[in-house]
């Protein structure tokens, strides 16, 4: 019996084994089932089961490697999907670049223009999703848009036809904590998409437990 499986059920260690496989492939590049089996001290059959799951998830693909003689050798390599599983440091890079602009008197004014330009692009991208919707539908559509960006958004509605949009995660909190233009442009974006007054009542970047937006459904801009 393979050490990876007992009683026909996947043990808790299976996911950690696949994580080790992905880490090995990240550092080694293309690998064969036999190479992985030797490295992880598992049978090739166990490795192939894991590779099947990883291929099904879109993290790994099979490639044929030509040999000087004989049939091509089949190996595995990571896909672009798998690249997203590894740590990224984009926020640090963004902060470094913004700081460079901010510290140079000749370019400091560009920061406001960059955030405003980003807001306009997002507005133009998402406005078509608001067409023909009533306010409640627009608020729900906005929550869906924010969730697609990793904001963990939820909507509350009271009896006075007022809505509150809560965001429990801020993917750009590192940037927003230093450059409040990020928050002000998000607020301007929400007002433009919803076409009603919107006010921020809590902010993660300012120490709040979440970002909360009060949306007045009884008024119009």
What is the structural class? alpha+beta
CATH topology of the largest domain: Muramoyl-pentapeptide Carboxypeptidase, domain 2
Task: Please write the string of helix (H) and strand (E) elements.
Answer: HHHEEHHHHEEHHEE
Oligomer: single chain
Q: What would the average pLDDT be, to the nearest integer?
A: 87
Shape: elongated
- CATH homologous superfamily title of the largest domain: Trafficking protein particle complex subunit 3
Beta-sheet strand percentage?
A: 15-25%
Q: Number of helical segments?
A: 9
Query: Rg to the nearest angstrom?
Result: 25 Å
- Percentage of residues in helical conformation: 40-55%
- Detail the poorly predicted runs: 1-11
**CATH class placement of the largest domain:** Alpha Beta
Organism: Paenibacillus paeoniae
InterPro entries: ArsR-like_HTH, Carb_Metab_HTH_regulators, HTH_11, WH-like_DNA-bd_sf, WH_DNA-bd_sf
Domain Helix-turn-helix type: 21-63
Keywords: DNA-binding
């Amino acid at each position: 019996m393979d050490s990876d499986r007992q009683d026909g059920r996947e043990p808790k260690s299976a996911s950690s084994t696949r994580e080790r496989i992905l880490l090995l492939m990240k550092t080694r590049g293309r690998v064969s089932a036999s190479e992985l089996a030797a490295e992880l001290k598992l049978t090739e059959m166990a490795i192939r089961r894991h590779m099947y799951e990883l291929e099904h998830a879109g993290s790994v693909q099979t490639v044929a490697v030509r040999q000087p003689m004989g049939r091509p050798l089949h190996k595995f390599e990571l896909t672009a999907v798998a690249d997203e599983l590894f740590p990224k440091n984009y926020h640090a890079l963004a902060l470094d670049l913004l700081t460079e602009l901010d510290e140079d008197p000749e370019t400091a004014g560009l920061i406001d223009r960059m955030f405003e330009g980003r807001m306009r692009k997002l507005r133009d991208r998402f406005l078509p999703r608001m067409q023909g919707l009533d306010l409640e539908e627009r608020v729900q559509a906005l929550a869906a848009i924010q969730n697609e960006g990793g904001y963990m958004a939820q909507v509350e509605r009271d009896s006075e036809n007022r809505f509150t949009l809560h965001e429990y995660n801020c993917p750009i909190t590192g940037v927003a904590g230093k450059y409040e233009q990020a928050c002000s442009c998000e607020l301007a974006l929400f007002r433009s998409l919803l076409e009603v007054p919107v006010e921020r009542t809590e902010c993660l970047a300012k120490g709040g437990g979440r970002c909360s937006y009060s949306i007045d459904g009884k008024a119009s801009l």
